[in-house]
Amino acid sequence: MAQTYLEFEKPIATLEGQIRELRDAGSAEGMDLVEEINKLEGKVSDQIERLYKNLNPWQKTQVARHANRPHCRDYIEALVDDFTPLAGDRLYSEDHAIMAGMGRWQGQRVAILGHEKGADTQGRLKHNFGMARPEGYRKAIRVMDMAERFGLPVVTLVDTAGAYPGIGAEERGQSEAIARCTDKCLQLGVPFVSVIIGEGGSGGALALATASRILMLEHSIYTVASPEACASILWRSSEHANIAAEALKVTAQDLQKLGVIDRILAEPMGGAHRDRQKTISDIGLAVAEELAQLSGLSAQELRDARRQKFLDMGRTGLV
Fold first, then answer.
1. Which parts of 150-215 fold into alpha helices (H)?
2. pLDDT per position as a tens digit, 221-252
3. 278 contacts: CB under 8 Å, gap ≥ 6
């Protein structure tokens, strides 16, 4: 997969460009340039470590949206055995923005739901960039009903800029569908783990993330509105998105302090897109651990604990 560089990664892009040039020159002219290449690779590692240890909220937002970051489909293909996809809300149509189905996560039978953004232009159009319509949330409700009927834990992978705001979606009851999906999450009597794998935007994310345990990748974001939208409202210009990102407390580190999420999952140095397999493997193990911890609770205990968890939000970590 071709490497895509973010604006703040220009120093890394320059060094890795030099490495590629040396390798090409060595191959073409038969020169031994291993020592020079090793030196540059060391500089790349140092530069990545320096940059990624000091990311500000706006830079983390860019990393969370990185085109090469693993998406929902990548996690399902790598972690879920015997995956059986389920489609349609039985009311209107299928919504490809939300993937849903049954399978085995680390050997355990689960129902799995997630936003899929698409990996290329054709895929992004098919999946509507991960922005679900009402039928997507109604499909999620249908699958969660099935999970509860058969006693299956629910796992959700959240990665969306928000629910689709189009006229058709509003006509078909977008806000009602999101509200009912959120309510269904709260009423589930089975273990429920949600992971913010990229972008968690507004109610479109919350509708799949009102879980017993909320995990978040180190450089993911979770926010009531995108920094650009917030800046447009406050300053009538998205140019101030970096200031808005700081004020919104979008990062995993801030949200853990506020009690909004339960656990931060470390990413490989340079972000999830630089070592996709390790990121996917780490999430597989983390979700399995959380499900194991929740497995001993009764249906009512799970509902009560989840409800109390969300009632307590806003009280934790405030001075």
1. 167-171, 174-187, 202-206
2. 999 999 999 999 999 888 899 999 999 999 99
3. 268
C-alpha count within 13 angstroms, C-beta hemisphere, residue 36? 13
Full-model pTM: 0.91
**To 5 degrees, how large is the angle CA 309–CA 74–CA 205?**
35
> Are 294 and 302 spatial neighbours (Cβ–Cβ below 8 Å)?
yes
| DSSP assignments along 186-197, one per residue | HH--S-EEEEEE
Which residue bears the tokens 């470590």? Answer: 49
Cβ proximity of 177 and 134 under 8 Å: yes
Contact between 189 and 300 (Cβ < 8 Å): yes
Q: How far is CA 9 from the centre of its chain?
A: 21
The SS3 call for residue 205 is: helix
Q: What CATH number should be reported for the domain whose range is 61-312?
A: 3.90.226.10
Which contiguous run of DSSP H or E holds residue 58? helix 57-64
pLDDT per position as a tens digit, 137-173: 999 999 999 999 999 999 999 999 999 999 999 999 9
Q: Mapping DSSP to helix (H, G, I), strand (E, B) and coil, where does residue 107 land?
A: coil
Residues 6+ apart with CB under 8 A from 251: 57, 60, 221
Q: State the Cα torsion 205-194-286-67 to the nearest 10°.
A: -20
> Tokens at residue 276, please?
């996709």
